[in-house]
Amino acid sequence: MQNFLRLLRFLKPYRWHLLGAGILTLVVLAGELLTPAALRWTIDRGLEQRRMDLVFLYSLLLIGLFGVRSVAAFFQGYLQNLAGQRMVRDLRHQLYERLQYLPISFYRSMPTGQIMSRVTSDVEAVQEFVAWGLLFLIAASASFVGTLIILLLINWRLSLAVVSPIIPLAMVVYLFDRRIGPAWEQVREQMGKLTTVLQEAISGVRVVKAFAREHFEIRRFGAQNETYRAKNIYRARVEARAFPSMDLFIGLCFVLLTLYGGHLIMRGEVTLGTFFAYQWYLWGVIWPVRMMGWLLSIMRQALAAIPRILEILDAPITIADAPDAIPLPQVRGEIRFEDVWFAFPDEPDRMVLKGLNLVIEPGQTVAILGGTGSGKSSVINLIPRFQDVVRGRVLIDGHDVRQVRLADLRRHIGIVPQETFLFSATVRENIAFGRPDASQEEIERVARLAQAHDFIMELPQGYDTRVGERGIGLSGGQKQRIALARALLMDPAILILDEAMSSVDTETEYEIQKALEQVMATRTSVVIAQRLSTIKTADKVVVLKDGRVIEEGTHAELLARGGEYTRLYNLQFRLQEEGLTEREQVTAG
User: Fold this and answer.
1) Is 81:132 a contact under the CB 8 Å cutoff?
2) What is the DSSP letter of 121?
3) According to the per-residue pLDDT averaged within each range, which of 170-174, 195-199, 379-383 is highest?
4) What is the pLDDT of residues 79-90, one digit of tens each?
5) Which residues, in sequence order, are CB contacts of 454 under 8 Å at separation 6+?
6) Are strands 540-545 and 365-370 parallel, antiparallel or unpaired?
7) What is the spatial distance between Cα 26 and Cα 143, in angstroms, rounded to a whole number?
8) Are 319 and 386 in contact (CB under 8 A)?
9) Contact 277, 36 (CB under 8 A)
């Protein structure tokens, strides 16, 4: 309940809407309580006394009551939904904003499908209850209490008789509430799992097709879909057992009214008008109890969704500007790692980097090598502060990256990741993502540097061609070249290439390498390389093993030492060296 009250704080900006809706709810309730009384007067004072003028008068009163109720109900519903919709808009926006600032480590433990489920279906569950269910619940409670008081004042003996089945009806509602809550929690959790499978299958469609695993993915989705169906069937079974039982006790109320009420009419203790008014009033007691099960079901859905929503809102933003963060207007490009220790937040005991020390001079091109798990990716992720060190410091031009503004830091760093991501937008928009105000000339210049201009011009609409979700309409090499152009457009002082040319062919790599030589000559470049051509042209090669720098120097120096670099060279690069030599001989010939 504390979580629910916390979420209701989102309604605070719209409290006047809710106040207006609450006042109108009271007007509707007053109309509901006066309508049976007007009917009673019509029968007892008009029909029994055979006075048509009174029948006409009370009929006009009934019409007026219906009109006031209808108008009040319209504006009450409008204001209530307006407040609820705006509250949910704010909530969804805050969730999305939070997701933008959460660190990358958050996404290691939270599948994309779960995030999507929480931002969509879970928020909709909260919306359904807040938009109208909350005031409806309050109105139902007020209707029950108000109607019961009026019934007891009219004839307490008849009232106690006809409402006696409401006690077992309330027990059914209570037992229903106990079961429907956990049932909805399981349904929501399973929806997150189903969405995760769907998202992964769509995002990885090329891998699925490449390995001919369509049938496997269909079976995997089918299994989760079947589990979702089973949990929904259980939830429906709980509702199916409860609602008919509720209808049974509701029917008993009217049976008792007919028997005992008819008896009292024959004895002259109750008028015919009172009897008919009781039928109307009785619904004012029954429908709140009857609807309470459904309202509780909606409330339970919201209560099951709220912790899942708050898990995102409460996730700590561990990578943020320090209170005393300083601007970083000019960057020469010096990078220093001083006794750096690093572990992922979800694996704090497994150190990926262990006392790493490294100096990269301004304008230097450094190639980083190492086996799987050596810490290469962690090194480049610490420079733009995608992660924070456990101990030690990462310095840019002598400034600890944790003490400078994130926006300034990342504006001076251009990154081409190993796994290229493109948005479902045009080629132009993807290249200009970091600089939306860039001119067409600037975009084309960096596209030429990345050897992307020619293939872009061959696309149906050139730079205005939409690339499809995640760039599915392009090859891996084409996507990498667009990503490279995107990074170059930022004109960064520090350029990070994470195996940025792993998907391009040798000829394209050669052309890109030639173009990059002039670009990298004026900026610091950190490269995780798989190609020998990149390593041979680097000013320094750094070899990592078990989270430490074990060798550094030029390609020739390290090869002469016969250490770890020589071992990696013999395993990965000797065949490339022979291929390059043959190509140079063919070119020379």
Assistant:
1) yes
2) I
3) 379-383
4) 888 888 888 888
5) none
6) parallel
7) 9
8) yes
9) yes
Q: Going by C-beta distance under 8 Å and a sequence separation of 6 or more, which residues neighbour residue 471? A: 420, 421, 422, 430, 478, 479, 482
On whether the CB atoms of residues 478 and 430 are closer than 8 A, the answer is: no
Q: What does the alpha-carbon distance between residue 282 and residue 260 come to, in Å, rounded to a whole number?
A: 14
Q: What is the pLDDT of residues 196-236, one digit of tens each?
A: 788 777 767 767 776 677 888 888 888 889 999 998 898 88
What per-residue confidence (pLDDT) applies to 508? 63
Average pLDDT of span 475-484 = 82
Q: Facing residues of 498 across strands? A: 528
> Could you tell me the end-to-end alpha-carbon distance of the chain, in angstroms, rounded to an integer?
81
Tokens of 138: 């309050």
Could you give the 3-state DSSP secondary structure of residue 504?
coil
For the whole model, what pTM was predicted? 0.71
β-bridge pairing 548-553 and 391-396:
unpaired
For the CA atoms of 101, 106, 111, 115, what is the dihedral angle to 10 degrees? -40
Gap between the Cα atoms of 198 and 221, Å rounded = 7
State the sign of the Cα–Cα–Cα–Cα dihedral 566, 570, 573, 576: positive
Helices and strands per DSSP (H, E), number in the chain: 24, 10
List CB contacts of 367: < 8 A, sequence separation 6 or more.
527, 528, 529, 534, 535, 538, 540, 541, 542
- Which amino acid type is present at position 299? M
**Which domains can be identified in the chain, with CATH numbers?**
2-313 (1.20.1560.10), 335-412+493-588 (3.40.50.300), 418-477+485-491 (no CATH)
pLDDT band at 586 (very low <50, low <70, confident <90, very high): very low
Between CA 190 and CA 431 the distance in angstroms is 38
Residue (of 537, 543, 588) closest to 563 by Cα position: 543
By the 8 A CB rule, do 95 and 313 touch? yes
Pairing of strands 391-396, 540-545: unpaired
Do 88 and 325 form a contact (C-beta atoms < 8 A)? no
- Quick one: average pLDDT of 576-584? 53
Q: Quick check: 427 and 378 in contact, CB under 8 A? A: no
pLDDT in tens, 33-88: 888 877 777 777 776 667 777 778 877 888 888 888 889 888 888 888 888 888 88
Q: Closest Cα to residue 99, out of 86, 110, 88?
A: 110
| CB-based contacts of 191, cutoff 8 Å, min separation 6 | 117, 121, 228
- For the segment 285-311, what is each residue's pLDDT rounded down to a tens digit? 777 877 776 777 788 778 878 888 888
Torsion sign (Cα): 177, 183, 186, 188? negative
Closest CA to 398 of 492, 332, 495, 319: 332
Check if the beta carbon of residue 513 is closer than 8 Å to that of residue 527: no
Mean pLDDT (the chain, rounded):
81
Q: Which residues make Cβ contacts (< 8 Å) with residue 59, sequence separation at least 6?
A: 42
Task: Count other Cβ atoms within 10 Å, centred on residue 157.
Answer: 12
